[in-house]
Design a protein that fits this description.
The complex is a heterotetramer of chains A (364), B (342), C (160) and D (165). Chain A has 364 residues and is of the alpha+beta class. Chain A is 49% helix and 13% strand. In chain A, helix 4 runs antiparallel to helix 11, helix 5 packs antiparallel against helix 6 and helix 11 runs parallel beside helix 14. With 160 residues, chain C is an alpha+beta fold. Chain C folds into two domains: 32 residues; 103 residues, 2-Layer Sandwich (Alpha-Beta Plaits). Chain C has a three-stranded antiparallel β-sheet with strand order 2-3-5, with no helix packed on it. In chain C, strand 2 and strand 3 form a beta hairpin. In chain C, 18% of the residues are buried. By secondary structure, chain D is α/β, with parallel strands linked by helices. Chain D contains three helices and seven strands; from the N terminus they run αββαββββαβ. Chain D has a five-stranded mixed β-sheet with strand order 1-2-5-4-3. A two-stranded parallel ribbon of chain D has the order 6-7. Chain D is elongated, with a radius of gyration of 17 Å. Chains A and D meet through helix 1, strand 7, strand 8 and helix 12 of A and strand 3 and helix 3 of D.
Amino acid sequence: MAFKEIELNMGPQHPSTHGVLRLKLAVDNEVVLGIEPVLGYLHRGMEKLWESLTYVQVVPLTDRLDYLASLSNNLGYVLTVERLAGIEIPRRAQYIRVVLAELQRLASHLAWAGFMANDIGAMSVLLYGFEAREEILDIFEEYCGARLTIHGIRIGGVIHDIDTGLVSRIRTVLTNIPKRLADIRTLLDENRIWKQRTVGVGRIAAAEAIDYGLTGPPLRACGVAWDMRKDIPYSSYGDFDFDVPLGRNGDVYDRYAVRLEEIGQSIRIVGQALDGLPEGPFMAKMPRVLKIAPGEAFHTIEAPKGVLGFTIRSNGTDKPERVKMKSPSFINLQSLEHMCKGNLFSDVVGILGSLDIVLGEIDK
Amino acid sequence: MTPFVADLLIPVGKIIAVILYPMIMVMVMIWLERRVVALMQGRLGPNRVGFQGVLQPVADAAKLFFKEDIIPRQADKRLFNISPILVMFSSLLAFCFIPLGEPLRVGTYTLTLWIADSPVGLLIVLGLSAISVFGVIFGGWASNSKYPLMGALRSVVQVLSYEIPAGLTVLTVAFAARSMDLVEIVRRQESSGIWYGFLMPVSFVVFWISAVAETNRAPFDLPEAESELVAGYHTEYSGMKFAYFYMAEYAHMVLASSLVVLLFFGGWLPPFQGVKALAFLHAVPGFVWYLIKIMFFLYLYVWIRATFPRYRFDSLIRLVWKWLIPLALANFLAVALVRFLR
Amino acid sequence: MSGLRRFLRSFFLVDILRGLAVTLRLYFSRKVTVQYPEEVKEPARRFRGLPRLYRDGNGEPLCIACKLCQKACGTNCFDIEGKREAGAKLMRPVKFDWRLDRCSFCGFCVEVCPTSAIRFSPEFRMTGVGREPLLFHLDEMYLAGDELQERLCGGCRRAR
Amino acid sequence: MPADPADRPELRQTLEALTARFAGAVLAGAVEGRELAVRLTKDVLAPALRFLKDERGFNAFEDLVVFDNLQAPAGGGARFTVLYRLYLFPGALRARVSVDVDEGEALDSAVPVYRSADWAEREAFDMFGIRFDGHPGLRRIYLPDEFEGHPLRKDFPLAGRDRGL
């Protein structure tokens, strides 16, 4: 009887594809032979839309890229525009941006911890992760009024100032998160079922990871110390000291461990930023209508999912000629097939979860 | 006691009781599961329908009753319709052999708290609970879609491989009690003064793990792994057929808990029988103790589900063939040796 | 961790028991559920709820139909026409169409409005029973609270 | 944060090595801060990328950007400018290799050199219609395969075409 592989369709409506991703799997009775991701279900034509909006009007749209880390998208786009237009940002605004970006990284990693654990079966961790994240969303709501599509960072600075009341509330949140994190770690770190599902699964070597263009936690899990906040510091990240957690053998467990460590580091950064918050304006002097002379700029930041980059080309008007976004999830998803080949079907869910992709950012 | 009452009314009454008993337990289980998992996750769970959500299962059942009953187009109609019945039938039938307490003396008539008591009651219950595997296979196959098929295949391999350790540990109990009759086993535990759960802890642990696996419950819920197979073998079912699968799963859980309680924790016996000081515990009827013990194990089911991630298929099979079966065999030899030397 | 200690820990199911201990402890912990609609979590002061037009102290509409908001809006939700009454100093809006289903709550209109006529209200109940009620006309821009809910989804029976 | 002013000597050497290796093909080259910008002719693209990766250590492929020069024609007057952004880890250096392509012309695919260029090139094809020879599976990545036209071109109407759907 000739061997015929099953073509299994996972998505675009599937409980664990983190959005509208469709995976065409070639499966031989649960062993994965090949995966072909099909994209475009959430394609909104962002880059075309951006070409018809002014620089300032594009910022709220960048919220909708990685909708779990909207402040990071804002920061990435805004820094590129500022480099293109040569705008100098007051130090207080840079520090507030670091506070917001790192809080956003905490929220994104906590949401990810919940999703990944739920994909592998530990359903309670989803609630614990979201409960911790809820406190951060309350901070964002108090700071600028929105919880998910926050649009709190503007070209030239930030939307509001941080008053002492908000600073103390952020500090209490920073003390609560480690407690919730400790629960998650006790539940998962040493658990034998968790280890069987994650150790050695979806392993990728450092050289292959760089060749596949992996960035962010999945790359650092292979032991490659590439963190844009350290390599090309931006928005005064150089003033803070924090370490870059690294894994050893680049499997699902190391990606899990690296992200949980990063939560600890982000708490350190926010603490230092709040301690050293300089005085001064929180917004640079901006013209009413921002017109930028023809030119081109490329800038990258360390978003929670990986290296997020923007290329902007200006043509002298108040609307960008071309804005291209380099999305970390888009590039990281390419290595999914390499990691999943030969594994079992249930590992695909775990590996996809460990890559922490968001379809808004992939489909643009 | 006219024969009319003795031979007709009472048996019919008992049969109705045997059907109602699992139904009520299933209703309790549905509520318990949703509440306990919720409370463990820092939320309240259903508390709108009835006092503290007690009527939620009734609401679910009514909803499912009125929901449209979809049969996929290319599904194999006959198999598709039979499987929920098979799954439900096997668990209800097994309840006939579960004794709930010592026979009651009502005037001259002794009311036995079970439908049938056979010298091989244990084997019959195990055999009947294995029939539900057919329901799962037919359901998965007849749905004619890939996910249910994978769910069904996984379930077959899982349930069959966990039958072996379950069977071996049950044998050790039969060995110790020198009988397969469930009532006899409980009486034997009473007379020997020690419950087999404490006499043979290894048997209890292995049997408990196999019971969790056989009922496809977390962390062994691969056949219906929501995050992988969407809903496993009952993905294509809806309306009352889905309700059957849903209730059958809980019925099997209650069945497995009753078996654990009967075999290892002395069924309806009050705890600490030997201790004279606690003799007043005997006043409480056997049936209440039996319920308390079952509720503990049902709580344990839900507790485990809220805590642990899900096994991967090969690690689950490796667990049973490399760990549980050798352990069960070694334990069986040890018990046999002890029995022989004594 | 030495091999023996790791074996003992795994044989006596230490990781399993510690996991169960966590869920048991959380079983008795404080619950975070907010019983909406009986309990309502107060939105923050700067909460970006439904943008509303406001009136000044003595009931005069603040909006002077300068259409700055219409220009600033990225998703062009506004369609405004103003008219200057004979003898009046300021223009008044005659037609003020605003589309809730296009609004992305970016807040540019609120920032750019010279008389802060349009501001975010704490209203977060914005669901309607059709596309038509999501198009607000001039007088409906001043609605708030229950009349607003009546306007948005009047049809459904409110569980009051 | 403007790029730090110190020009990196290694980049200068790379530029010289590149111009020596591909004599006539390097149309323009400059080192600015941590970034080397080079404009090449179409045919030396693939060997140049191979050279930059193997000999000069640019081991990571960061991004592929396509500009439509319909309104603002670049120096060469070609319709599209395709940028390959490379990254040197751990030195944190960048290379910007740009090539001009006219409508209908094809480029050599960079996938044999950098595996992660695969989807980036498929996206460039989907959005601009630039074909890459040697690409393992050049298909549209976002839009359905039967979609005609390339949306990110300047002459594609923003509101889309009325297909009467």
